[in-house]
Amino acid sequence: MLGPRVADVPHPTPAFSTTAAVLRSLRLAAVGIGTGVLVAGVVGGIGGRIAMRVLFLQNELAKGSITENGNEVGVITPGGTVSLVFFTALFLGVPAGLVYVVVRRWLLGEWFGHGALYGGLLLVLFGGGAIDADNVDFRLFGPSELGVVLFGSLPFLFGVSLAYLVDRWDPYVPAVFRWRSVTIGGYVVLVGLAAFGVVRFAGSVPELVG
User: Fold this and answer.
1) Residue 61's pLDDT is what?
2) If residue 181 lies in a helix (H) or strand (E), which one and from where to where?
3) pTM of structure
4) Rounded average pLDDT over 35-52
5) Helix, strand or coil, per DSSP, at residue 197
C-alpha cells in the first residue's frame, strides 16, 4: 500500500474542533488586548502628552493657568505622565484592541486600510472627549485648529499602529465572522455607528475652530 485509505485517516471530532476554535479565539483576544494596551499607552499616553506640550509652546502665556481637569498649565510631572499613560492604556487600549479583532473582518483593505478606517471610527465616535467645543482647554491653549489636527491625528495613528501589529502577530479570523448573516449584520452595525459618529462629531468641530 502506498498510504492509508481515506477511511483509515482519523478525523478530528467536533469536540476537538470546537476546543481548538475557542483556544484560537482566546489567543486572538489576548493579542488584541495586549497590543491595544501597548499602542494606547505609547500613542494615546505619550503622544497625547507631546500634543499638549506642542500646544503649550504655541501659547506660553497660558502658563500657570488651570485646565478643566485642575492641572497647572506648563507643569509636567513624571507622576502625571505615568497616570496619563496608565489611564489611556487601560481604559482605551483594552476595549479598543478587543473590538478591533472583532470588526477588522469588515474593514476594507489590508492592515493600513483597516487601521485608518478603525481610527476614523474611533475619532468620530469618541473624539469628542478630547476635541470638545465646550472644553475651555482648547480656548485656553489655542489656536484651536492646531489642537484639532494634533488630537485628531492620534486616533488614526493608534488605529494604523494597532492594525499593523495585530494583523502581523495574529491574522486569524474566527469562522463565525465569515457567515453571510454575521457579515451583513457587521456591515450594518459599522455603517450605522459611523454615520451616527460623523453627524455627532461634525457638529462640534466647526464651532471649535470657528
Assistant:
1) 55
2) helix 180-202
3) 0.79
4) 92
5) helix
